[in-house]
TrEMBL record:
<keyword id="KW-1015">Disulfide bond</keyword>
<feature type="signal peptide">
    <location>
        <begin position="1"/>
        <end position="24"/>
    </location>
</feature>
<dbReference type="InterPro" id="IPR045332">
    <property type="entry name" value="ARMET_N"/>
</dbReference>
<dbReference type="Pfam" id="PF20145">
    <property type="entry name" value="ARMET_N"/>
</dbReference>
<dbReference type="Pfam" id="PF10208">
    <property type="entry name" value="ARMET_C"/>
</dbReference>
<feature type="domain" description="Saposin B-type">
    <location>
        <begin position="28"/>
        <end position="124"/>
    </location>
</feature>
<keyword id="KW-0964">Secreted</keyword>
<dbReference type="InterPro" id="IPR019345">
    <property type="entry name" value="ARMET_C"/>
</dbReference>
<dbReference type="InterPro" id="IPR036361">
    <property type="entry name" value="SAP_dom_sf"/>
</dbReference>
<dbReference type="GO" id="GO:0005576">
    <property type="term" value="C:extracellular region"/>
</dbReference>
<protein>
    <recommendedName>
        <fullName>Mesencephalic astrocyte-derived neurotrophic factor homolog</fullName>
    </recommendedName>
</protein>
<comment type="similarity">
    <text>Belongs to the ARMET family.</text>
</comment>
<dbReference type="InterPro" id="IPR045333">
    <property type="entry name" value="ARMET-like"/>
</dbReference>
<keyword id="KW-0732">Signal</keyword>
<dbReference type="InterPro" id="IPR008139">
    <property type="entry name" value="SaposinB_dom"/>
</dbReference>
Amino acid sequence: MANVKLQSVCFVFTACLILVITEAKKKDERECEVCIGAVEKFKKATPDDVFSNTDKLEAAFRKFCKKLPKGGKENRFCYFVGGTEDAATGILNNLIKPLSYHLPPEKICQKLKNMDAQICELRYDVKPDFTKLNKMRVGELKKILSNWGEDNACKGCAEKSDFIKKVKELLPKYEPEEYKKLQAAEKTEL
């Protein structure tokens, strides 16, 4: 009888251990997404001969960071690693050397995360579902306009319907693919 209880306890313990291990191995799909995205974008934009010289690589990365829009997530990443002129930290060398060894972006970002955790806390904004504008809050509609740089486009807007109308009006200019989806969705509703 004691043997059966011991086997049961061992089975439950093993099952819990397996569950904990599998959960630990599952990682957040969006973890370090800005870091990985910025490093991949930089690697694609940089000629192969630059990777052999760390000084040239650092200069190329600083130039890359300078071209990024201010206030964007990738610009923030550059600030965290020391790629911008106003950066307070200087861990850029910890990005440049692994890049020169052609280490994958995921590994580079994990190393950077160990030095500064906020590097991997950066996330890209989730794209809104423009087919559900009527279900969005006014704050979300204002944020869409703000992200497009159209803060003043809806100064006289008082009602939610005014904001929806303005977003629909500007949608073809900023999100042409989403505009086509919206038109298709509106046709199927009719």
